[in-house]
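Issue 218. Parser rejects a valid record. Input:
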Amino acid sequence: MNILIVEDDEFKLNALQRLVTDVRDDIKIEICKSVKAAVKAVSERDHDLLVLDMSLPSHDLELAEGLGIPRLSGGIEVLFEVQYQAKKMPTIIVTQYPEIELENRMVPISEVRKYLIDAFEIEVDTCLFFDLEDMTWSEELRRVLAAR
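Output the parser choked on:
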């Protein structure tokens, strides 16, 4: 199973990687830390699952270019690329914010899935709130991984 994890926060990325490798040992993980890198990965390679943060920098840190521009809803660009490429890639959004900015509107995480379908015809499997005090996100991600 090939999983693309798009996450720029090292702590959260490490937690996601540990969880994924704990659940299954047949997983190959590709990591992207920016919108630009994730769009390239989606367009050039096939993945069985996308685990996506929504708040991402525009591009990776590169010499002479500096840090990428923070994008509160940068993950939507990755979802648009999946849609454009007509890829049937199960997608799980994992964010540490209770709301996600979509079309200049703050959408509660509980409504993001429906909003993406209604506004953009983009389907995601689930949206999870990453919180180390409430491990609901990890239980749900474990369930999804075990079922594949």
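Fixed in the parser; the record now loads. Residues 96 and 131 are 6 Å apart (CA to CA).
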